[in-house]
Amino acid sequence: NSRTISLLSQLEKINLDSVLGESDNARYVTSKILHLVQSQEKTRKEMTSKGSTGIEVILATLEVNSFNLWLWVHKMSDQFKFLGGGRRASVLVTKGGTQILLQLLLTASKDSPPNEELMVLLHTLLAKIGPKDKKIGMKARINGVLNISLNLVKQNLQNHRLILPCLQVLRVYSTNSVNAVSLGKNGVVELMFKIIGPFSKKNTSLMKVALDTLAALLKSKTNARRAVDRGYVQVLLTIYVDWHRHDSRHRYMLIRKGVLQCIKSVTNIKLGRKAFIDANGMKILYNTSQECLAVRTLDPLVNTSSLIMRKCFPKNRLPLPTIKSAFHFQLPVIPASGPVAQLYSLPPDVDDVVDESDDNDDAETELEIETENDDDKDQHFKNDDIETDINKLKPRQELGRPIEELKMYEQFFPELSENFQEWDLVSKEPKAFVPDANLSGPIVVPTASEE
């Protein structure tokens, strides 16, 4: 019987009527709810408590009313602060909030030009609740809104207020491998490099989000190959050196780590590692890491750089008769010819271990495999390791004692050892049978007369 429940009942009735011109009444009721939410913590808890229909009523209001009311309700939703905590955001997801917001985004994108204020609010909400919805990438692809955020970024590169939440949503989308490949085909990798370079300390928050999005995109081997083909490995190293030189007070450690994460993602493929070596990346990361050792807060940069260098360092077989090893392992006998002699005759800078980690990867094959893996999540899980052969699953019956010890009980169970005769009604002669070894019943054996 609280004031909030009464207002929610009025708003629900307005939604059910959905009569033209009711938006003013809905706006009036939502303003009252907004005032209560902003002024009373009790109301906020009541709206998101278990069994409450408050969020469902608000989401229903978003579906049935005009854009002006959507803006108003979105502002109210932002003030609700159920996005401020993980539990409250999860409540919004479980009530179907993600699906409704994606549908609103699709409808709003059809306007020319789209409402900027509405786009900012929609993307802000999606960016906040996206990490709580594991299937948001698949939902976005099914609803056809995957490229809406990408197109907004392409058309508004100078409007940082708009593209910041769009990049945050793209970062959430890119956690899905199928989405990452699809966005890469539409030029998202090239777009990210336009945002992160050249070096500038303006809009560092936008730079950080763009680097996180790029690192997620480059985890796809298709996008990583695309970045290598366009020479972006050298660009990433240049950007990292610029930030290392200009960030003398170490205020932008997260941006520098974001660049390293992009390099780490692109070097997951053989072409990326080769491009890293060719761009003198080993020397660059080694020198910058040496300069970071004195500052304890830069340990994450040193650790990430070490992982990249270890991954890209040429691999050799033991024994190593070259300067690459601190120890020299000499074989007792080295044949004059053969594979061992060929390895020993190689120059020091040659990688004698063939890297075939991704020679057979194909972009289209990868996309098909990723699509199948993504679709499997929505189907019943089938484990191929589960044994289905009944004969193998049937437990084997083993005697607890040897047969010799069990013979003392024969007198108590003569039917298990003696031969009995069964009268054959057809031939009017006795029919002999013997017991089955598995104790499952007698096996009838024909007599000599029957043979």
Automatic annotation (TrEMBL):
The keyword tRNA processing does not apply. Transmembrane segments: none annotated. The keyword Hydrolase applies. SUPFAM superfamilies: ARM repeat. The gene is Agtpbp1_0. One of its GO terms (molecular function) is carboxypeptidase activity. This is CBPC1 carboxypeptidase. Keywords: Carboxypeptidase, Hydrolase, Protease. It holds the Pfam family TPR_CCP1_N. It comes from Onychorhynchus coronatus. InterPro entries: ARM-like (IPR011989), ARM-type_fold (IPR016024). It comes from the Eukaryota.
